[in-house]
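P.,

For your records, the input lines for the assembly:
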Amino acid sequence: MSEFNHSNVSGGNAPDPDYKWTYEYYDDDEPVSFEGLKAHRYSIVIGFWVGLAVFVIFMFFVLTLLTKTGAPHPEGAEPCKKRVRLTSCVEDFSPPADPDNRPCLHRPLLDSSVSRSLFHCYVNEEQAQEGSRPRAGARVLGAPRGGLVQGPGRGRSGSPEEGGMEVGVTSARQGAAMLGGNQTDHREAMSLSHFNIPNVVNSEHCSTLGADDLLLGEPPIIMEGECHWPHSAHHMMD
Amino acid sequence: MNDVSALPSNHTDCQVVKVPHLVFLVLGMVSLSENLLVVVAVVRNKNLHSPMYMFICSLATFNTISSLSKTWETLMMEFSDVGQLDSRGDSVRRVDDIIDALLCMSFIGCICSFLAIAVDRYVTIFHALRYHNIMTTRRAAAALAGIWALCGVAGAVMVAFCDATVIKIFFIVLFLISLLLILFLYVHMFLLARSHARKIAALPGSAMPHRSLRGALTLTMLFGVFVVCWAPFFLHLLLLMVCVENPYCECYRSLFQLNLVLLMSHAVVDPAIYAFRSAELRNTFRKMLLCSDSPLCYKVKALFH
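Structure tokens returned:
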């Protein structure tokens, strides 16, 4: 064992003259005996890796099952819809107090029915006010996609750095498509109905709406009104 | 990184598995170039100066530091093997300590950056309306400054008192806590996305959300890579404290260099699962690498046309 480094177990006080640039090895006082091992000597290694693989695969299957099981509950969206009935299309989605509506807490964020209702609300408001700018319309149009409803020019940083949300929700797009009554848009919007884990908060303006844009190919939800949606605005103005 | 591994008395049992230095060098180079690219891209592009990209940039910086120190250490070990370097000198030991401190700092920094990214995404989803009030650039910068300070101090302390068991316990506990937190945050986000997908499916005429499988795949990949790359190293630390003389533990500890390779490969995979997913970042890379917006490149292109 002389070729290996001897290191002080209790914390070296004096510099070791035999210090070598290598991984240090402790020299045990009693050499470990490999006699009479009951199991395979790499059993910890094998057990650890098998356990890790099982855990990861199990986690994957649990997550997959979570996505598949359970019937959709369209009526569950109604309480949320009623809760977000707006008069001015400006709302603060503060968390509801009662626990019954707690599932609603996050639904207004991404609920298509909610966004549709907001959309209708905004359209009504648009018609009510003459001289509303199309840009402002596009801005709020962009908002319901992420559930963020702010009146035009309300307290937003508005800088390109502030991000939208790439949660693959195309709810408002569907809403726009439905309002516009365009069949192809509707079908296209419906085909985009999947979700993903937000990998990025999309801060660019909506020029990069490709299928490869997102983690899972979802179009980003732009919460800030930096982007214009000309075709959606046309739908809105119809 | 100097580490401790019990030496079996019988050389035929559980010999230490040695990984050639070339592997570490290649991994270090690849990881360094990738992460440096991410850092430069985030710094250069003004659009990427948002809290989320700041956290990703911080993760890439920690990965850069860790790959730099590991490559540096591998080079010095190579020189020492060849005989070019006097490994007994005092200055060499000091350099060795600095390398170890940097490695510890970058390990802790990586874990903290993962946590910060997970928290940022969590706030994005669950407090989306107030995201810009909660996660301002100033707060993100303050959080990053705190993380860096904590990691610097922790790295220095760990190397100064590396023989104390408390250090190893701290490391392991930190790892476990952040693992659980990250798992909780991501699963919560996943559940929300799943409930929304159901609602989309409830709409008339909507297609079956069969592509929601990819959400599960993404989450498994994110978390699975983290666990697979980091857990073996931490189990090594744990076994070092718990069972020093057990032959089974020794056989596990003999694979230390393989665990280190796994840890290094995580720095290689990290940009792929965090940074390269962003289209804006990819566009910045394309612009940088193909240099489509630099006046120098116009001259170069003019030369060839």
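Two observations worth noting. The radius of gyration of chain A is 29 Å. Strands of chain A lie at 25-26.

Regards
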